[in-house]
Design a protein that fits this description.
2 copies of one chain form a homodimer.
Chain A lengths: L1 H10 L11 E3 L6 E3 L6 E10 L10 H19 L2 E11 L4 H17 L4 E8 L3 E10 L15 E5 L4 H10 L10 H8 L5 H8 L4 E6 L4 H12 L2 E5 L14 H10 L6 E5 L4 H11 L3 E8 L4 E4 L5 E2 L11
Chain lengths: ~325, ~325
């Protein structure tokens, strides 16, 4: 008990009640109480992170605290919902005060940057496991659902994809990726930037239709969006933004990173062509680069197009595992 | 992937969208979307259950599904919040279809009984771990907070306490508890009944002030309520409701079960004496027995009183671990 009281102290900060936030009652009662803005809908997402599966045992605790919240914030971003708060449930094999302090530091730095306070949770002894549930709000009809893409829509991606995958291969010592781990690529893997400002800005654009966040790779997650919307897409491969770290890779590996990387936490979204100016404004206002990479088609297939407009087959590119 | 697609299927039911509930969008997108009633506050609680700590490895999966949700619903009950929905994050060492089907059966039976649909979550491979986050709604000012008890309030408990503890000792083979496990007591341990109808009814009683749900034992949880409210209490021991299964126990053991049992998931609450009639009505309307067991005092201590009004010392009763 005393040990777990210690754990709680790392997460018990000045109560986030009253003031300018939505939190009526924070940590310490049977429930937290939030007051959403009048008429708004509540967006909810929950992710569980397990050692060896979602992170390495030797990951920096600050990075783990950051990433555990970032992947949840990214789900809110993909709906266009403004963050309100989150709960953290934590199973720990033992209470290591230094580890906890560093984990909390990474967690709260990101929470503060998004005005998304910790409102409750649970701690228990057990194999290391982190479960964060995050809450946001969005006006009715403005949520960016993955089933809302329409034939003729432009297809956009925020930022750039593939660096997290490159860093993962570098950490694994994969031959093609080399062993010199790029600091920037590693930061993309361990401290992803959720695109909440962009998501909220897009939710206010009338012509913005569907969105999904990229956790499993661009092509795979696009597949989920297309399936939910009953449409297809063409990606113009030369339009994909390529990070400097990826430019020296063999073409097949570069495409694998770009399209099947995973852990990107960028937004993939669709919008009517008439909304191009509004999308550019949302990008500028949120300080988030976006790139138009293709379009949504009525034919329910995903086609990759090369520089000359030719269809590039999936299998030949070494990423047939998402075909 | 295929394996975890299988897992998801056990939890993917007819989409709980539209219709009479608050669910705008259920499982399958980046976030679930809920529409709370106009002006209501949102109540949120999250609990993590770990094998060996919160349940035995050989517990019936139906019972585990029931209990994982019940302990969360109980937190909503203690705030007087009406359930809206929940998320489930689940780490499993392997996908055992029979186990999952039975777990889902227990989970959904309780969810349906409380009109509290599963709206999202996560599944991953890892040591068995269940994290449920539950959402409810309550009118502003009606939440039953644990810091709201006032000197002079009556002190009530719903149902009766101690049977879960007796069953736990029986399952452990403790000498004093005997080895003949009482079916009713075991049901109290493995399938607790969250008191949501009572909690919602109490939230509408103007004189009802503070509440807490009993997870760690009556005396210990009362201590949390008293500390949060800056008050004390007297419990009239002969007033405590005693289950038939506890009546044959030595007095010290009986009191230990009643006061320091744990896993009771009853509501402990306070109300002004003027509200006695309204409390009786809330009890009748919700079909939940409640018993007045003492009163809140200005002096910030907890006193146990015997039949003749004498103070019964804590230490002598074998439950000094909550003193």
């Amino acid at each position: 008990m005393g040990e777990f009281e210690l754990i709680r102290r790392h997460f018990q900060r000045a109560p986030a009640t009253g003031g300018d936030g939505a939190v009526v009652l924070g940590i310490g009662d049977d429930c937290a109480l939030l007051q959403p803005s009048p008429g708004h809908q509540l967006a909810i997402s929950s992710d569980m992170l397990v050692e060896g599966r979602h992170f390495f045992a030797d990951v920096a605790p600050e990075a783990l605290g950051h990433k555990a919240l970032a992947v949840n914030l990214s789900d809110l971003a993909a709906m266009g919902a403004r963050p309100l708060g989150f709960t953290l449930a934590l199973a720990l094999p033992q209470a290591d005060s230094d580890w906890l302090a560093r984990f909390a530091q990474g967690l709260f730095a990101l929470a503060d940057a998004h005005a998304c306070p910790l409102v409750g949770g649970d701690t228990t002894r057990g194999p290391l496991n982190l479960c964060i549930t995050v809450f946001g709000e969005v006006k009715p009809g403005q949520a960016l659902r993955r089933d809302a893409a329409r034939a003729g829509d432009d297809l956009y991606v925020s930022g750039r994809t593939g660096e997290a995958r490159l860093a993962l291969e570098q950490l694994r010592g994969t031959e093609w990726a080399g062993t010199a781990v790029e600091a920037e690529a590693r930061a993309r893997l361990e401290r992803p930037t959720p695109r909440n400002a962009l998501g909220v800005a897009l939710s206010a654009v009338a012509g913005a239709h569907a969105a999904i966040d990229l956790s499993d790779g661009l092509a795979g997650d696009l597949g989920h969006l297309l399936q939910a919307s009953g449409v297809g897409a063409e990606i113009h491969l030369p339009a994909l933004p390529v990070a400097p770290a990826l430019q020296g890779l063999p073409e097949a590996r570069r495409l694998e990173c770009l399209l099947a990387g995973g852990d990107d936490y960028e937004l993939l979204f669709t919008a009517a062509p008439e909304a191009r100016e509004a999308i550019a404004l949302a990008s500028a206002d949120s300080g988030t680069p976006v790139t138009r990479i293709g379009r949504i088609t009525a034919a329910p297939s995903l086609r990759l197009l090369g520089a000359a407009g030719q269809v590039v087959p999936f299998g030949a590119q070494g990423f047939d595992h998402f075909a």
